[in-house]
Design brief:
Elements (H helix, E strand, L loop, with lengths): L21 E6 L3 H12 L11 E5 L5 H9 L7 E5 L5 H10 L2 H4 L1 E6 L2 E3 L3 H12 L5 E5 L22 E4 L7 E4 H13 L11 H4 L6 H12 L2 E5 L4 E3 L35 E2 L7 H5 L10 E3 L14 E4 L8 E4 L7 H4 L6 E6 L9 H9 L5 H18 L5
Parallel strand pairs: 1-2, 1-4, 2-3, 6-9, 7-11, 12-13
Antiparallel strand pairs: 4-8, 5-10, 6-8, 7-9, 13-15, 14-15
Helix pairs in contact: 1-2
Length: 400
């Protein structure tokens, strides 16, 4: 059904089971990536589920081999549709068009072709939809669990309360579930935007992405509308980060361990669910729920990356930056880092003070090094630094 959409001719499309999310793959010119992803989808667990629809959407101008792989793939668990774009939309518009399939299917699992999947990705998506369907606070469900704060590259872990998930004000593009209602709300908001909103506290790293990034807009939407993505405490997708529209050099930075079992999701209100913002910082009122001390009016800056200039200098901040004066101080040893405050582990590294006391020349990088790496001792450290310097000199032709 090359180039024809559901909106143009709904009668041509096979009836689907609205209870099961459709699997939608956005493809273009990465044939081997698509072949690998389809193999992982075929090996996934679908016990007890019927009529699972698979849609492979190929943007206009896509490689012939991609089309051939999509056509030849045998799907044993429901109907398969291959949609060929009539023109090249580009990644942003292609993903938005795929997202609009929620109107037809009710919900979709959105996948780009350079992803890998846990055998239990589909069952997780079904259970998560059952837990959060119709929840106005939720804008989407992530299959991926971030191992690091993408803004600064430092390791990231969320507090685990046993619920099987946490909330974060950061949209996902490496495997996500969208429901028709929350997708429609995002699309309505997006249509109202003329320019990228400058009045929102969007992290600098995201703000510098091109406006052609649909994810940049989705993150702004979460911040503007105070909504969240559901994130699992174990990952059901991983990212091969292969060359494509937004990647020049392939690497393994975002590869994560895939879930080898289906974790139960507790969507009741009985548990305290940690909430994180777009900076990958735990929200102050969420942190207060784990403490006897009230932190609700405190700016959280445990990665030293937040834009503090937008706040009143008299406002309190919990930070890892160097400060001229502090009220209380904690070590930076436990993981996740906010656990040091929750457990009241005294030491140096994290302190609470007024924003006006934060130093501009803070050495955050060294604190991150000491936190993530085991300190090798001064002799070993000097040896490593010398080897690094010598290596660079030799690359420049120096005989050292």
């Amino acid at each position: 059904m090359a180039g024809e959409t559901y909106a143009q001719n709904p009668n041509r499309f096979i009836p689907i089971d609205m209870k099961n999310p459709a699997i939608v793959i956005a493809a273009f010119n990465r044939a081997e990536s698509l072949k690998r992803l389809l193999g992982m989808i075929a090996r996934a667990e679908y016990s007890g589920l019927k009529n699972v629809t698979l849609v492979i959407s190929i943007d206009g101008g896509g490689a012939k081999e991609v089309h051939e792989i999509a056509d030849a793939f045998e799907w044993q668990f429901g109907s398969k549709e291959v949609v060929l774009g009539q023109k090249n939309l580009g990644l942003k518009e292609h993903i938005l068009q795929c997202g609009d399939l929620t109107k037809r299917f009710g919900s979709i699992i959105m996948l780009e072709d350079d992803l890998g999947l846990s055998r239990y990705f589909y069952q997780y998506a079904v259970h998560a939809l059952e837990a959060f369907s119709g929840n106005d606070l939720i804008a989407g469900i992530s299959l991926y669990k971030h191992p690091r704060n993408v803004h600064v590259g430092a390791s990231f872990q969320a507090l685990d309360t046993g619920a099987g998930y946490y909330l974060q004000q950061f949209a996902q593009s490496w495997g996500q579930v969208w429901e028709s209602g929350n997708w429609r709300n995002f699309r309505n908001w997006l249509e109202e935007q003329v320019d990228y909103p400058v009045d929102l506290d969007v992290p600098k790293y995201v703000r510098f992405w091109p406006d052609s990034s649909w994810l940049k807009w989705h993150i702004a939407y979460l911040i503007a509308q105070e909504k969240y993505f559901v994130y699992p405490t174990q990952s059901y997708s991983t990212n091969f980060c292969e060359c494509g529209t937004n990647v020049d050099v392939a690497d393994n930075r975002y590869q994560v361990a895939l879930a080898n079992y289906l974790q139960t999701i507790d969507g009741t209100q009985e548990r305290v669910i940690p909430r994180y913002d777009a900076y990958f910082e735990i929200e102050s009122d969420s942190l207060s729920q784990f403490l006897n001390t009230i932190f609700e009016d405190v700016v959280i800056d445990l990665y030293g990356y937040r834009n503090l200039e937008i706040y009143d200098p008299e406002k309190k901040v919990l930070t890892i930056r160097d400060v001229k004066h502090y009220e209380s101080q904690w070590a930076m040893r436990l993981r996740p880092r906010e656990f040091n405050v929750i457990c009241d582990v005294k030491g140096e590294g994290i302190c609470i003070t007024k924003i006006k006391h934060v130093s501009n020349d803070s050495c955050v990088a060294m604190k991150e090094f000491m936190y993530v790496k085991e300190w090798p001792g001064i002799k070993s450290f000097i040896k490593v630094m010398n080897l690094a310097v010598l290596g660079k000199l030799r690359k420049r032709g120096w005989n050292v």
